[in-house]
């Protein structure tokens, strides 16, 4: 009595379970092959169901960006990395409320943030591992290598109960095709080697060198010194990942199922997936449009409103009718999961399961505070 | 014992309650002044709290784009318009499940969609009002005026129990500043007048002529024949609305409160609001960036990752420190409310209330089906 895809109300996010398993297996095998610690970023799926699959395949822990992700993932994992600056009283408070059984690591890029962090850890009676985040070209967060990073590592060591646990970088600026990443890899390696030497000169050692990103995931073992990887997108993949060659098109496990709702305007078909179902993320590889059809990648969404997507039909003989179903591969899947509360898992054309996107959103902080004042700060 | 804004965990969406009331009052007064039926679009707020305020100020009903919006809003309003093609078995089924007390109108742009719509209404034993959607330049959905629209109106009349209730258009293509909309208004008026005449020639009359959009909201009374308006954004307003002069900057009631989390990279400050808190919507007026500071509109978010926003500091003397709070006016607020589950209402710098964004997302269709099979379609 399986439910056919055709019966689902659209728009709805669909994950092909066979492709998902394949993607999970591939990354686990890659990490094992090269002796890398795999610490997947949960931002892509935000679901304990997928996190559990990652852990069962040997992931050493999980990477989170938000406190809500930490909260949710602490129910299935006792080794979490907050790859985000632990700044702000409310954020620190929420971090420290995590179960005492959770081994917690945070990434910092500012000496100014250390005293409050150390005090919060002390009051919560918890050890805290700290990665020093270095900027190796992304120009987002992170201190410059090598001197600034060495200084920050020393500052961490001076702040009990913080523990200097390694260095971290995010190579999100490396967006070349997989085959063209050689120069970027050489540059990353040079920066890291210099930093590790300088740390050694000062009597410090980075227990971990944590790198990440799915685009670079399959070549990260070539970067000198890397011990840990934090890919996120690989579980589902998307149009950008395929476009740069970090996966094949058939590895795109995640699509948005949509319905053609209008063909009234000539030369186009309107589907019921717009910005509120697909996001509005640029394609980071060759091509244009906001999403492409799984079965006809040459047909793309060229315009969107909140609940409308416009398929350009000028370069195809395909002429959909009102009511037809299509499956769309989004440019950037991490944004799309954040738009939905539930994902439907399919095997072929039939629904097999579904799971909640528990770490979507922020958690209901304000109402919680209204109901349960927590001392002076809640007033 | 009020909670100060400073204590909230960020990123968090904040609504200034005084500004919200002002915006609600202004639009209600405008509609009254010109004898227009105000049927606000709920896509902007997706909250029964705000919908109730709109109804208390004289709105005749509400406009929805999704079935989940219909479901949620039917709890506070008995006159709903689905301004979206009622296409697809699952969508029709959900529409027809609405309480029989709900007076329902749907917009159609395809004769092909009428038989299933009429059959669904008949089986549900409900009357259904139908607007014929015309495309007056938006090129999204809608049939061409006048002949196609007249033909479609006649097709509606032939499908019992459907009732031809009027024509509808969405002037979303009119994006000029409010003072420069004269030519667009003349063009809309000419198209509508011709269509109404052609309908009259065929012995039909459009009980309502429903127009919409916040950019044109304050001049929609100048468009010939319009009886009903469907603005959405005006409750909160945003950077685009202010940019085209459809509101003043001080009427921007909605901001995202964020924290500066890094100043490690020179020339910029990184905040904890990125694409997953601000969306990635282009500014539809003069200027660039993805959001601007409420108190310093010249400082804008120039780059974003999922949880990072980069404030460009090159054109300002302002030098924020890690931990500082900022409030951001997004380019397009309707996308931002869709990212959060709860909105915090503030009076000045203090939290007064909060409300859920109940109509965010899609409702939990799949799990509902799993648990309660509904005849042959759920199998």
Structure description:
The structure is a homodimer of 379-residue chains. Chain A has 379 residues and is an alpha/beta fold. Chain A contains 11 helices and 18 strands. Chain A has 2 domains: 203 residues, TIM Barrel (Alpha-Beta Barrel); 108 residues, Lyase, Ornithine Decarboxylase, Chain A, domain 1, CATH 2.40.37.20. In chain A, 27% of the residues lie in helices and 23% in strands. In chain A, the strands form 2 sheets. In chain A, strands 1, 2, 11, 12, 13, 14, 15, 16, 17 and 18 form a 10-stranded mixed β-sheet that branches. An 8-stranded parallel β-sheet of chain A has the order 3-10-9-8-7-6-5-4. The longest helix of chain A has 20 residues. Chains A and B meet through strand 1, helix 4, strand 11 and helix 11 of A and strand 1, helix 4, strand 11 and helix 11 of B.
